[in-house]
Specification:
heterodimer, A: 117 residues, mainly alpha, Four Helix Bundle (Hemerythrin (Met), subunit A), 7 helices, 74% helix, elongated, B: 696 residues, alpha/beta, Rossmann fold, Hypothetical protein af1432, Beta-Lactamase, six-stranded antiparallel sheet, six-stranded mixed sheet, 17% strand
Chain lengths: 117, 696
């Protein structure tokens, strides 16, 4: 699929991304780079270790990157997760972790289907 | 050296950093840091070379606020602009960031155009500010030079009327400055005087005689002695000068007030006998006391219409003896301390000196106003030095290190870092596991102690230790120099140094030492080193029981003659091996001559079983040659505890063993109080043999 279709599939905003980064080329470059970004893995690892300060930072990073790339859906859920972990573990966290997981997989799946240029 | 402006991007996410780097494009040189600690180290390294820092807020190790805190502590924030970029947008965060000195705040998601524009704006703003600062510095300099000039013109007018050369004002000013500068450091109650006071007093000193403008020229320039009446008129110049100043519209100005003190009281005397007010002791302001002394000194050493110039030494002595006024004893001490400086200063080109001094003061003033600012030129020079240093460091292939205590940072030359497998910049190295693995905690501690115990006069230290890297422990030498800031109590500012791999040379040295101490054929100790060890044992534990044994191979000469020297050498090696095998740890064995060997051992009860055992071990054969040994033994129980005596006695016993027919050992026995000389002669009666059938 095209970059625009890919944004539909991951429920992001293609026009926002283009208007922010000012070039389709940059958006594509960084969207693809997201596939190799370690923040999600870091989030999972730190949750497994119950290191919630680190998990907070990882969620925070995902949120920041998603906002810049206008990956709205994942950006949203990771923002909620960030807030739920800001002061350590909270009861709201487990459901949000699941949501981020689902959104992340949706995003990755869409990016994997992106046509090469 | 790159001419591009340097931008530091601090963000823990590699993606975020590369997005920002891409947005800024290749117009800038991008430097990256992935956490606050790295950021601080990088800012410290590059300083004002950084045009702007883009700072993330949430990061591991040290967050954005931590970085800002450091930048504030070290005043870097005044010169390196920071733009904070964060997904945190709550107003309390933003406010706190601005409070801590960030220039701008960009929240995520950001627009590429805005980031680019704000970076440019910030850089321009700071460039302008820097330019303004240096403009201001130039003006300040000009201003001080001008006011100095005005004061100089004014006082020259007075002097020309006086028929003086115009040098008097300059001299008085220089002497005042030298004396006061010394006094404020030497005498505790004047420690409060500041450099500003110093400038003020020396500038005001030029005005000390302005009252003379109202004195009749006939009196001023009279070649002979003044009459009482004339002198009374002359004396009025002090009060008149003061009055002129007090009538000025700026009479509350600090300079005018200081000049007032000086005009009015520079003819007072410490004992109260001066004029116009007869003030005594410390009622006379220190400014006036000092100018009075400077005035007298210069008057004495200069030619006037009414007198010849006196030599420096005479003038100083006259002041000390109160022959020309009466002065504060502390001030007299100061005069003696700086007399030589005064003499040499006045002998040099004082006009040039005066101008240089003025500009120095202006710069000092500027630096005082803002300790952290330095002129553009200094920074350029500094950068040049840094480039030079980096260049040479890269060439030398040395491990060069720099330590900065605040914040604790260890910086390694790139080559050194690579060699040791460490980062180039390491924050908090004393708690860094990798650093401590390389150096060992104990060595780190020791080196720190050596540096802290060094002095500004002797800041160099040398320390040999083993370091671990590449899976190997190797000897290194650390040569370092502590950097001390010269205050009354020197302040440790860090250290620079290098680490040299001395493993190979150290091993060569050890090998040489080993060779020097050992017999090359048998690997046993040689005679000299065995002797040294034996003497150490005897002196170390004089009450222990020792035996010294000398033996040689029976009929060894025959073996050599029959089978050749190579065969003989093999026999010696074999014998040495047997000998080594029969000894206990702590025993000493040496080859002391052709086929002659020495053993030195400690025993507690009976020595004979030990001797018996060794003796038996030493009997053997090599090919067709069967060999036995003859052995002489002496025990410290029966002889004096000194090496020469023991050796001599053992030799006697050996001789006896040979005479007894070889293939045996003999003990030296001496139960009689006798001299060595006699023992030698009557040795037979004192020797016991292990051959039961014969009396040796």
């Amino acid at each position: 699929m095209t970059l625009e279709e890919c944004y539909v599939a991951l429920e992001g905003s293609y026009t926002d991304a283009i208007s922010r980064l000012r070039s389709e080329k940059l958006v594509r470059k960084f969207a693809l780079k997201f596939l190799n970004d370690g923040s999600y893995q870091l989030l999972q690892d730190s949750l497994a270790k119950e290191d919630y300060a680190e998990a907070f930072r990882a969620a925070h990073t995902i949120k920041g990157v998603c906002q810049n790339l206008a990956f709205d859906k994942l950006g949203n859920s990771s923002e909620h997760l960030t807030e739920s972990l800001r002061n350590g573990w909270s009861d709201a966290a487990p459901a949000l972790i699941e949501q981020v997981k689902a959104d992340y997989q949706q995003t990755i799946a869409a990016l994997n289907d992106l046509d090469p240029e | 050296m790159s001419n591009k402006q340097k931008v530091l991007i601090v963000d823990d996410s590699e993606m975020n950093r590369s997005i920002l780097a891409d947005i800024l494009g290749d117009k800038y040189e991008i430097i990256e840091a992935e956490n606050g600690v790295q950021a601080v180290a990088t800012i410290q390294k590059y300083g004002t070379e950084l045009s702007v820092v883009l700072l993330d807020m949430v990061m591991p190790k040290m967050d954005g606020f931590g970085v800002l805190d450091m930048m504030n502590q070290h005043h870097w924030i005044d010169e390196v602009p920071v733009i904070m970029i964060s997904a945190e947008s709550s107003s309390s965060y933003v406010e706190r960031a601005y409070d801590m000195g960030v220039t701008d705040f960009i929240s995520r998601p950001f627009d590429a155009l805005i980031v680019r524009r704000r970076v440019i704006n910030t850089i321009l703003l700071y460039a302008k500010q820097k330019k303004l600062t240096s403009l201001l510095a130039d003006q300040l300099l000009q201003k001080e030079e001008r006011s100095n000039l005005m004061v100089d013109i004014l006082s020259h007018i007075v002097e020309f009327r006086n028929g003086e050369s115009g040098m008097h004002v300059i001299h008085v000013r220089l002497i005042t400055e030298l004396l006061l500068n010394h006094l404020m450091h030497k005498v505790e109650r004047y420690n409060d005087l500041t450099h500003e006071d110093l400038d003020m007093i020396s500038m005001a000193s030029a005005l000390h005689d302005i009252g003379k403008i109202s004195i009749d020229e006939a009196i001023l320039n009279k070649p002979g002695r003044l009459t009482d009446e004339e002198f009374t008129i002359m004396k009025t110049h002090a009060l008149i000068g003061a009055q002129m100043l007090s009538e000025m519209p700026y009479k509350d100005d600090k300079l005018i007030r200081t000049a007032y003190e000086i005009c009015r009281w520079h003819h007072e005397r410490y004992d109260g006998s001066g004029y116009p007010d007869g003030l005594k002791g410390d009622d006379i302001p220190i400014s006036a006391q000092i100018v009075a002394m400077a005035d007298v000194y210069d008057a004495l050493t200069s030619e006037r219409v009414y007198k010849k110039a006196l030599p420096h030494e005479t003038a100083v002595q006259m002041i000390i003896d109160d022959k020309c006024g009466a002065f504060n004893p502390e001030l007299k001490e100061c005069l003696l301390d700086v007399a030589e400086t005064i003499r040499s200063t006045l002998a040099s080109d004082v006009v040039a000196l005066n101008q240089k001094r003025a500009s120095q003061n202006a710069v000092a003033e500027m630096l005082r106003n803002n300790e952290t600012s330095a002129s553009e030129r200094t920074l350029r020079l500094l950068e040049k030095e840094r480039e030079k240093y980096k260049f040479f460091a890269a060439l030398t292939k040395e491990i060069q290190v720099e330590y900065n205590p605040d914040p604790p940072t260890l910086t390694l030359s790139p080559w050194g870092a690579q060699k040791l497998g460490l980062d180039e910049i390491i924050m908090d190295p004393q708690n860094n596991e990798q650093v401590l693995t390389v150096t060992g905690a104990e060595n780190w501690q020791k080196i720190t102690e050596l540096l802290l115990n060094s002095t500004p006069e002797q800041p160099m230290i040398k320390y040999d230790c083993k370091m671990f890297y590449n899976g190997e422990l190797r000897w290194h030498q650390v040569i370092a120099r502590a950097m001390w800031q010269q205050e009354d109590e020197p302040i440790f500012q860090g250290a620079i140094g290098k680490v040299i791999d001395i493993h190979d040379s150290k091993q060569r040295l050890a090998e040489l030492e080993r060779k020097a101490n050992h017999d090359s054929l048998t690997g046993l100790l040689n005679h000299a080193s065995a002797k040294k060890h034996i003497i150490e044992s005897l002196e170390g534990h004089p009450h222990d029981k020792y035996a010294l044994i000398i033996f040689d191979l029976d009929h060894f000469k025959n073996a050599n003659d029959t089978y050749g020297h190579i065969f003989g050498d093999e026999v010696l090696k074999l014998e040495a091996q047997k000998l080594k095998g029969s000894l206990r740890a702590g025993d000493i064995a040496a080859r002391i001559g052709g086929d002659e060997f020495l053993i030195f051992l400690r025993y507690t009860d009976e020595v004979e079983p030990i001797i018996e055992r060794i003796f038996k071990t030493l009997i053997g054969r090599h090919e067709d040659f069967e060999f036995t040994v003859s052995m002489g033994v002496v025990q410290t129980e029966f002889a004096d505890n000194d090496y020469e005596t023991l050796f001599h006695c053992a030799d006697q016993a050996l001789y006896a063993a040979k005479r007894g027919g070889r293939g045996r050992y003999c003990f030296y026995r001496d139960d009689l109080p006798d001299t060595i000389h006699n023992k030698a002669k009557s040795s037979l009666s004192k020797i016991e043999s292990n051959d039961p059938n014969r009396e040796c």
